[in-house]
TrEMBL record:
Residues 2-29, 101-128 form a coiled coil. It comes from Hypnocyclicus thermotrophus. This is Uncharacterized protein. It comes from the Bacteria. Keywords: Coiled coil, Membrane, Transmembrane, Transmembrane helix. The chain crosses the membrane at residues 44-62.
Amino acid sequence: MEEQQRLSREELEKEVKDFRKEKERVRKIIGQIGGKRNLQNDKYINILFLIIVLIVFILGGIFHTIPITLSLEIGVFLVSLKVAYMINSQEKVNHFQFWILTSLEFRLNEISKNLKKVEKRLEKIDFEKIDKGE
């Protein structure tokens, strides 16, 4: 009995270590994909696109240094680039969410298997107690 407790304690400590490693790995991935650094970059990219579009429209519409149709075409092109960038960013987020859900499903399956093993052990212990007459 004492050996089983020691064994289960060692297994529990191993599970805790594995959980901590997994948690650190997830933190690193979150930082790479959707961390504050990317939010800051997105903010700068949004401001840059807005400034460029405004400059092009001002040069074409107010100062007439470039034809108005050209400024509109450049503006539409820049907005199209921005939409493509936003789609790419959303694609990264969707991939990350899929990865997280897959990882959770895998862990749930592992936990379910472990739970079944524990239930079998408990049933075995109960049967041993019944056989001993306790």
